Amino acid sequence: MARFMLRRCGETLLVLLIMSFVIYSLIGLMPGDPLDVMLASAPGVTPEVVAHLRAIYGLDQPLLLRYWHWLMAALGGDFGFSRSHAQPALQVLAPALVETARLMLSAFTLSVVLALVLGIVAALRPGRALDSIISLAAFAGISVPVFWLALVLILVFAVELHWLPASGTTALGEHGFAAHMRHLLLPVVTLALFYTGQFSRFVRAAMIETLRMDHVRTARAKGAPERRVVLVHALRNAMIPVVTVMALSFGTLFSGALVTETMFAIPGMGKTIYDAILGNDYNLALTGLLFATLVTLLSNLVADLAYGWLDPRIVLT
Fold first, then answer.
1. pTM exceeds 0.85, yes or no
2. How far apart are CA 289 and CA 283, in angstroms?
3. What are the extents of the domains in the chain?
4. Which CATH architecture has domain 90-310?
5. I want to staple 285 with a disulfide (CB 3.0 to 4.6 A). Which of 117, 155, 276, 315 is the partner?
């Protein structure tokens, strides 16, 4: 296990290094640069002043040299200064990271619980009416666009019924836990419904296949309770492919909740990265994308560790 962890940590650092260079290069190849945006509001600046500013910001240097300087600073904990927020990039990302973590963890947990329940129920009676209803609901959750689902929930629960706020967020201790949960409920349900449809289909398919295996029939023949057969002998083996899908979705959910955060005016990571790219805020966009890459890598590491727990025959070396 120690050897496996050391190897995976080394692979994670290598992937982060490669991704930092790729992202830095792609952002650097975008038309315009931060200085062009700054000078757009001052058209009377002379070419000499422009050249001097480029030298100060290092924009007159080759791309590889600029990346090297950024990398050395990042290794020391300095990820650069956000031009659009006039703050260090890490200070800008910290509150956005908290908002996304609240939304992501809540939606992911709810979707996993619902998917397990619905997938198991559907797999126990394949082809029956309940299985058809669950499958139809799952396909609807997958097919419905997230922005449309968010609009429907806002119109129903915020505009018509006035039960929940339509947008915005509050700090956890600012107006109390209840107010915070009321602001968080609609975006969490929006994301959870979308991912529940995906996860429940995988759980159903894996459970149907596992319930037909020899070890499950043997457990039933020995008189094991049906609950133990389903939750221990079948579900534990069926979760191996499902965990892979969930791990990949977890990383996507971290940086890809842009639509939901925009619809509900949540200043999370997705919206922050998107605004940084549009505003040529290189340091902020690069740091945010690297955080998203790190979360994806860590979620895959957790999935590998879960394989060994679900199936003791899997040895991590």
1. no
2. 10
3. 2-81, 90-310
4. Orthogonal Bundle (1.10)
5. 276
